[in-house]
Amino acid sequence: MSFEKKLKTIIKEEGYSQARFAREIGISTSAVEKYISGKQEPAGGIMLKIVNHERFKKYTLWLMTGDVNPEMGQISPAFSTQEQCGLITGEEGSQKKA
Q: 18-25 and 44-52 helices cross at what angle (nearest 10)?
């Protein structure tokens, strides 16, 4: 799974626009656009802003590794959102739910 699609999925799952996400994190909208398009990867400091933000830290493990740990509060966005953002196909989502 690509970082850019994961970031897009998190933004969509939370119901944020790219501009609102940028404001919440304290970065420019153009930087978010570059990350989502895959034109640029965020530096370590930006990653820390994302994963330490109260609203987004629940996705840290998934964003960084693709894994989840619900017992530790580490989740992934809903399968339907992941499918909409092109991370998984409908078939993959059905298999993971089972």
A: 100
